[in-house]
Amino acid sequence: MSDENSTISQTKLFVGGLNRKIRWKELREEFSKFGEVVFARVKLDQETNKSKWFGFVEFVNPDDAAKAQKAMDGQEIMGRAVKVDFAKENPDRIQAREDAKENITEEIPEF
Q1: Are the beta carbons of 59 and 35 closer than 8 angstroms?
Q2: What are the chain's domains?
Q3: Fewer Cβ in 10 A, N or C end of the chain?
């Protein structure tokens, strides 16, 4: 993705330099200290099922994401210092995600 076609997220963090054995649960646990986490994802190599050294954490609140970025950048997780920064996102993906949220209804059908 080129920088000119990307938007800096205010709630999603990129976490680089992860231990190859880390999974989403551990990543979520590390970042949940700073606020409510929507999701944590570790990008895995399909052949080895080990981390590709990076992942993403998304917070509900932008202030919590900012606190986590500041506090966790350079800290160790499972013995490795990590690089934490705000994720760059494709605006089309952001819009598609928002559209999908709007299409979900919470109405329970009557029988």
Answers
A1: yes
A2: 8-103 (3.30.70.330)
A3: C
Q: What is the pLDDT along the chain (111 residues), one digit of tens a residue?
A: 445 567 888 999 999 999 999 999 999 999 999 999 999 999 988 898 888 999 999 999 999 999 999 999 999 999 999 999 999 877 766 556 566 656 654 454 554
- Of the candidates 84, 61, 81, 58, which has an alpha carbon nearest to the alpha carbon of residue 71? 84
